[in-house]
Amino acid sequence: MSDFPPDEARKRRAWQKIQRQLDEALDASFPASDPVAIVTSHEEEDWGIEPAAPAPKPLPPRNS
Predict the structure, then answer these.
(1) How many Å separate Cα 11 from the centre of its chain?
(2) Residue 15 contacts by C-beta under 8 Å, 6 or more apart in sequence?
(3) What is the full per-residue pLDDT of the chain (64 aa) written as tens digits?
(4) Which pLDDT score, from 0 to 100, does residue 61 have?
(5) b/e per residue, 22-53, with b = 16+ CB within 10 A?
(6) pTM exceeds 0.70
(7) Is the Cβ–Cβ distance between 36 and 25 less than 8 Å?
(8) Sign of the alpha-carbon dihedral angle for 44, 45, 50, 54
(9) 3-state per-residue secondary structure call for the chain
């Protein structure tokens, strides 16, 4: 049983899957000079580690 909450466990498995794919792609391309590439979905790459950008502050009214 995992010590992580269900959502965290899912994110951890997704991260591990991508890391495994990157490792396999690197092994398959070594020692070639081509960059390593894998195909993922946006959901797989959203690990939720970056804070959301704050909403822009409204500009004060201009006095004409």
Answers:
(1) 10
(2) 47
(3) 556 678 888 889 999 999 999 888 888 877 666 666 777 776 666 666 666 677 778 888 887 6
(4) 82
(5) eeebeeeeeeeeeeeeeeeeeeeeeeeeeeee
(6) no
(7) yes
(8) negative
(9) CCCCCHHHHHHHHHHHHHHHHHHHHHHHHCCCCCCCCCCCCHHHHCCCCCCCCCCCCCCCCCCC
Residue for token pair 């269900």? 6
Distance separating alpha carbons of residues 14 and 59, to the nearest angstrom:
41
Upstream peptide bond of 31 is cis (omega within 30 degrees of 0):
yes
Give the residue among 46, 42, 40 at the shortest CA–CA distance from 20: 40
